[in-house]
Specification:
Helix content is 20%, strand content 29%. It is globular. The two termini are 39 Å apart. It is of the alpha+beta class. The protein is built from 3 helices and 10 strands. A hairpin with a 5-residue loop joins β4 and β5.
Length: 238
Amino acid sequence: PDGDDIENGSYSDTLEELSRWIEQNAPGTELWVSEYEVPMGDCEIEGVDDHDNEQYQLVYAQRVARTYLRALSTPAVNYITKFQLRDEGEGVYYNSGLVTQKGKWDKKLAWYYLSCMTNTLGEASFDSVESSGGQYIYNFTGNNGDIIKCAYTTGTPGKTSVSAGGRKYAYLTVPEASIAEGRTEMLSISDDKVTLELDGTPVYLTFTDHPFVIVNGKSSQLRPAEICLTQDKSTEVC
């Protein structure tokens, strides 16, 4: 992407152009989006390490997640992989990872944003995207028929109402550092709508007729003492 507006510009234009070419010339061909990075020059502060700049890390996480969402909304795209998983120790790719450099592997906020996305969407299928005044709502259908909507705004943060699609229950999942699957809470439905606050962070609304049991931080409770590939522990124990 060549600008901070992931939803427009050359990134979106290229995805659409490739999709049209595949449809016309090579139907069924897989389209992989790989080796991409998002620009962050507008968030840098002179003399401040990007890892210590909380605003930089927040906006970076938002843009990375939105880049994935934009690709998900392109029918021809099969896979998307980011360059790269980890930071380099120095140089151009010093801060390009979802985690810090090799040997440290500290998860950055962007890692949690993508982890929340993949955990919430799972195998859901993309249906459509709605946009108005800088507000975006990506609509998905889960394997069990649940409605999942991802919403955010590139404009001024504020409250918005989202349709519940006639479902009985509504749950909001928000990415959060230290919780791999994000933090989930139940929302009240009024007149078949829920009201929530939106900003640049993609959040997820799940509408269902089946109530959830909410256990926030469940992934952090899995703490194996040791793992070995052989029963007699003759190979490396981790």
